[in-house]
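Entry 14. Structure prediction run on the chain below.
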Amino acid sequence: MTGTGLFDRGEYEARLTRARAAMAAAGIDALVVTDPSNMHWLTGYDGWSFYVHQAAILGPDGEPLLWLRTQDMAGAYQTAFVARENVLTYPEAHVQNPDAHPYETLATILAERGLAEHGRAGAGRLGVEMDNYYFSAACLETLRAALPGTEIADATGLVNRARLVKSPAEIAAMRTAGRITARMHDVLRETARAGIRKCDLVAEVAAAGIRGLPEAGGDYPAIVPIAPSGREASASHITWNDRPMVRGEATYFEISGCFRRYHCPASRTLFLGSPPAEIRRGEETVLAAIEDALATARPGATCEAVAEAVYAAFRARGFEKGNRTGYPIGLSYPPDWGERTVSLRPGDETVLEEGMCFHLMPGLWTPDWGLAITESFEVTPAGGAPLAEIPRPIAVID
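Output returned:
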């Protein structure tokens, strides 16, 4: 059993099958997974332990191995579905020690299990997530030095791509997260007013996300609230400060509820006072882009086609958009709730499949102001189906 209570053993077996199929297609015989989102997806393990070295290890058959700091093993026993004998560790003296790297122990474990070779070639290819927040250059160099007989291959994104199509149980978790997101936006509209410090407003919204719903408590999201006002909103990733909210400024909030690590981000824009005509024109543009993109997001369409629906709506109203306009979402840990695989942008010819989930981001930024109205959606035969019900128009606060 997993401590999340969301998925049965069959769900994890299906995930392992998909991951191993991807390994076989890439010619990888054993895989070291360090992205905590991928570790959780494969095993159910959940803990704030990704600041130290840890991994899930996937061989050609059997249960995955979990390799963790010793004091995190108890957390694996409570949250992961794997047997206790498959939860492994390394000496505590190796934690953040410049003279002894934990991957020395990992190399020994891989060799003892027949998944790598210390000195003799022929153990097959070992995949690692080279371009990953949680796998460092020192990790790679330590493995190479300890396993000279093993070919080490880049498996970045292999498990992430296996996660693209969500199961019905995952969709249900994301829709629960969406209800929490909607509650957070309710609190935002109810609380915002001229004179309130931005930090106090964000505190109320964040508290609503953690409280969640009567039937589903909230979790910490992978990204903190994004909440720029006025000229600050010409930048896309400014968080908050202690400046009071003032009339005559647009503020957009990019926030997400989180339920058992599943996310449903959504941005909405507030305006204290009467929005000027240019911001209203921007609002009209973004709302049209959302409708056109959701209508396009059917199985068989491409990521590029969905993006073009957004760009076309912008061009038709005299605006240009140069950045990507969406990315896959689902299960995640800090620092990002995106899955870091495909993108809704020109040149991405990935074909959409039913059950894929994206955060559609037709944000509009000018040198003097910005607004963001975004939608998380599921790909369905009828088009993109929003995962949360939140009013889209600018919320005008008198």
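DSSP finds ten helices and 15 strands in the chain.
Filed with the rest of this week's runs.
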